[in-house]
Write a structure and sequence with these properties.
Number of strands: 2
Distance between the termini: 25 Å
Number of domains: 2
Radius of gyration: 28 Å
Strand order of the largest sheet: 1-2
Number of helices: 23
Shape: globular
Length: 571
C-alpha cells in the first residue's frame, strides 16, 4: 500500500478522533480511549480542555488538520509522501475561523524603531479616502438630483475634509516607501549578522578592528544580492495578485449582472468602470499592474491606478535602495532629489510623461514614496537621532511639519473652490458678453494659482509627514503615536485597508444603482452615507481578507520563503 493511501487513512483517523472528542466533551457521548491514539501521539490530552471550535475539524483546522499534517510527515520518506501533506497544509491555510482569530490578534513588534503608529495613520487615511469618494462616486455613477447644492457645499469650509482624500493616498505612498527601505536595511543587517557569526577568520571582505584585548571581525553592510531581490518581486506579486484577480472577476462578471428592481440597476453593468474590463481587455492591465500606462487602459475599475503606481514604484525601489550602499549614499540622495523635482514639475505643468493621465502618472505621484525612503534613510543616521533627542529640535520638527501639512490641506480645498467658482463665472460669461473679459482675466489668475498649488502639494506634504515620522519612530511623541495611533483597534482595522480600498467603490455602486431615485445631496446625507459605506466596506473586506487574502498569503509565504516541509530533506 502506498504512503499516499496510508496518509488519507491517517487523516480520516484524525478527523474521527476529533469528532469523538467533540461528541464526548460537548454532547456527553461515550467513546473508546483507543480512538484518541492519533491525538495522544501528538501530545493531546483530554484534560487540556479544548474549546468546541478548536476541537471540531470543521472549525479548528489549527488543531485538527495541522495535527494530521504533522502525523503524515512523521511516517516514511517514501517518494510521493508530499501529496497528502500538501493537501492537508493547503486546507489548513483556508481555515476561516483560525484566520478570524488571527485577525483580532494584536502583535506588538519589538524593534529599535517604532512604526506601530503607521497602523493608525493607515486606517485614518483609508477613512478619508472613503469620505472623499462618498461625494465623488455617486456623482460619477449617476449624479445628484440637486448638483448645485453639492457644488455650493464644496465652496464652503465645511467640505475641507473631502480634499485630504487625495493627500491620504500620498500617505499610503509615503508609508510604502518608508517601510520598504526600513525593512530592506533590516534584512541587510540580518544577513550581515549571520555572515559575521559565520566568519572565524577574516577574509578579503572583512575588516579587522581592535576591540579591547581581542579582535572583532567587522563585515560591512551590503546591498541585497540579485537573487533576494528577484524573490522579493515574486513574493510581492503573488501576495497581491490573487486578491486583485478575485475583485476584478467579481466587478466585471458578477456585480454588473446582479438582479435588482431599481430602474437604475441595468445601468450598473453599462458603467464605464466595468465595461472596459470585459470588452477592452482591461482586466489584464490590472493584473500586470500597468493600468496607468495609457489613458484608455485606466477606465477598468479606475481606482486601481493606485495599485499600479505602488507596484511600479516597488519595482524600482530596490534599485534606488542599493544606491544607498554606493559612494557613501550620495547617489541615493541625488536620485531622491531628481525624482521629487520631476514629480513637482510634472504636477505643476501637467507634463505628458509616458502618455499617462496626470492624476495616475507614476512619475508625477512618486514624490511621497521617495520622501518615505529619504526619511527612512535619515532615521538610520546616528547624528540625526541624537539631534532628535533634544526637545527644541523635536518642537521645531512638529511646528514645521504641522505648518506644511495644514497649508497643503487648505490650499487643496481653496484650489477646488476657486475652480468651481471659475466654472460658474464661465457659465455666466457665456450669456453675458461684458463679463467675457472679466472671465479671461480670472482664468489666467486661476491657472497660475493652480500651478503653484500643484507644485506645493508634492513638494511639501511628504516633508511635513516625514518630520513627524522620524520623531515618532525614534521613540518620541508621547501619547499621540504610542497610545492613540498605535491603539489595538487601529492595528486590527488596518489589516483590511488594502481590501477596503479595492471594495469600497463597489459597495457604493451597489447602493447607488439599487435606489429608485437619484440621491439628494445634503451635508447630513454625506455624513450618514459615509458611515454606512465605511461599515459595509469593512464587512466585505473582512470576508475577502479571510477567504482570499490570508490563505493565498500563507501559500505565498510557504513558496517564496521555502518553508514547505518538502523543501528541505530530513536529517
Amino acid at each position: 500500500m502506498s504512503f499516499c493511501h496510508n496518509g488519507h487513512l491517517a487523516l480520516r483517523k484524525y478527523i474521527g478522533a476529533w469528532n469523538a472528542v467533540d461528541e464526548y466533551v460537548y454532547r456527553g457521548a461515550d467513546f473508546d480511549e483507543a480512538s484518541l491514539s492519533p491525538l495522544v501521539h501528538n501530545g493531546y490530552t483530554p484534560g487540556g480542555g479544548p474549546s468546541p471550535t478548536a476541537a471540531s475539524p470543521l472549525f479548528g483546522g489549527a488543531n485538527g488538520l495541522n495535527g494530521a499534517s504533522n502525523r503524515l510527515g512523521d511516517d516514511d520518506d517514501e517518494e510521493g509522501s508530499c501529496v497528502p501533506r500538501a493537501l492537508v497544509m493547503v486546507a489548513s491555510f483556508f481555515d476561516v475561523y483560525g484566520g478570524l482569530l488571527e485577525f483580532f490578534e494584536v502583535k506588538r513588534r519589538k524593534a529599535e524603531f517604532d512604526t506601530d503608529f503607521f497602523e493608525g495613520l493607515r486606517t485614518i487615511s483609508m477613512l478619508f479616502v472613503i469620505y472623499g469618494h462618498t461625494l465623488f462616486f455617486p456623482q460619477q455613477y449617476l449624479g445628484f438630483d440637486n448638483p448645485v447644492n453639492a457644488y455650493q457645499f464644496i465652496t464652503t469650509y465645511g467640505s475641507i475634509g473631502i480634499f485630504p482624500a487625495e493627500l491620504a493616498v500620498d500617505v499610503f505612498f509615503f508609508m510604502s516607501g518608508f517601510l520598504f527601505l526600513h525593512l530592506y536595511i533590516n534584512h541587510c543587517e540580518k544577513l550581515r549578522k549571520k555572515e559575521q557569526e559565520r566568519l572565524d577568520q577574516p577574509n578579503v571582505d572583512a575588516v579587522i578592528t581592535k576591540v579591547g584585548d581581542g579582535t572583532h571581525t567587522h563585515v560591512p553592510l551590503r546591498m541585497l544580492p540579485p537573487a533576494e531581490v528577484l524573490l522579493m518581486y515574486v513574493h510581492r506579486y503573488l501576495r497581491i495578485a490573487p486578491v486583485v484577480a478575485v475583485v476584478l472577476f467579481f466587478a466585471s462578471y458578477v456585480l454588473p449582472f446582479l438582479p435588482g428592481d431599481s430602474p437604475f440597476s441595468p445601468f450598473l453593468g453599462d458603467s464605464f468602470f466595468f465595461t472596459s474590463c470585459r470588452n477592452a481587455g482591461g482586466w489584464w492591465h490590472n493584473l500586470l499592474f500597468v493600468q496607468n500606462f495609457r489613458a484608455d487602459w485606466a477606465a477598468c475599475v479606475g481606482w486601481f491606478w493606485y495599485l499600479s503606481c505602488d507596484f511600479q514604484l516597488f519595482v524600482f525601489a530596490p534599485i534606488i535602495a542599493a544606491l544607498r550602499f554606493v559612494g557613501r549614499g550620495i547617489p541615493f540622495y541625488v536620485v531622491i532629489v531628481l525624482g521629487v523635482a520631476v514629480s513637482v514639475a510634472g504636477s505643476a505643468w501637467r507634463l505628458p510623461l509616458l502618455d499617462q493621465e496626470y492624476y495616475n502618472n507614476t512619475l508625477i505621484r512618486c514624490a511621497p514614496y521617495l520622501y518615505g525612503m529619504l526619511f527612512a534613510s535619515l532615521l538610520r543616521v546616528a547624528r540625526i537621532r541624537s539631534w532628535l533627542d533634544r526637545v527644541g529640535v523635536r518642537t521645531a520638527c512638529y511646528l514645521v511639519g504641522a505648518a506644511l501639512m495644514i497649508s497643503c490641506i487648505n490650499l487643496a480645498w481653496y484650489m477646488q473652490r476657486a475652480g468651481i467658482e471659475n466654472a460658474l463665472t464661465q457659465y455666466s460669461a457665456a450669456s453675458d458678453s461684458p463679463k467675457v473679459a472679466e472671465y479671461r482675466h480670472a482664468a489666467r489668475d486661476m491657472e497660475s494659482f493652480n500651478r503653484f498649488v500643484s507644485a506645493w502639494l508634492p513638494l511639501t506634504w511628504g516633508i511635513g509627514l516625514g518630520l513627524f515620522t522620524v520623531c515618532w519612530a525614534s521613540g518620541h511623541g508621547g501619547a499621540l503615536p504610542r497610545r492613540f495611533l498605535s491603539n489595538s483597534i487601529f492595528v486590527v482595522v488596518s489589516k483590511l485597508t488594502y481590501t477596503m480600498y479595492m471594495l469600497h467603490p463597489l459597495v457604493m455602486g451597489v447602493h447607488i444603482f439599487s435606489q429608485h431615485a437619484l440621491p439628494s445631496f445634503t451635508p447630513s446625507w454625506l455624513y450618514v452615507t459615509f458611515c454606512g459605506y465605511a461599515v459595509f466596506a469593512f464587512l466585505c473586506a473582512l470576508v475577502l481578507y479571510l477567504t482570499v487574502e490570508v490563505p493565498f498569503a500563507k501559500i505565498n509565504n510557504a513558496l517564496t520563503k521555502r518553508s514547505l516541509p518538502w523543501a528541505s530533506k530530513k536529517k
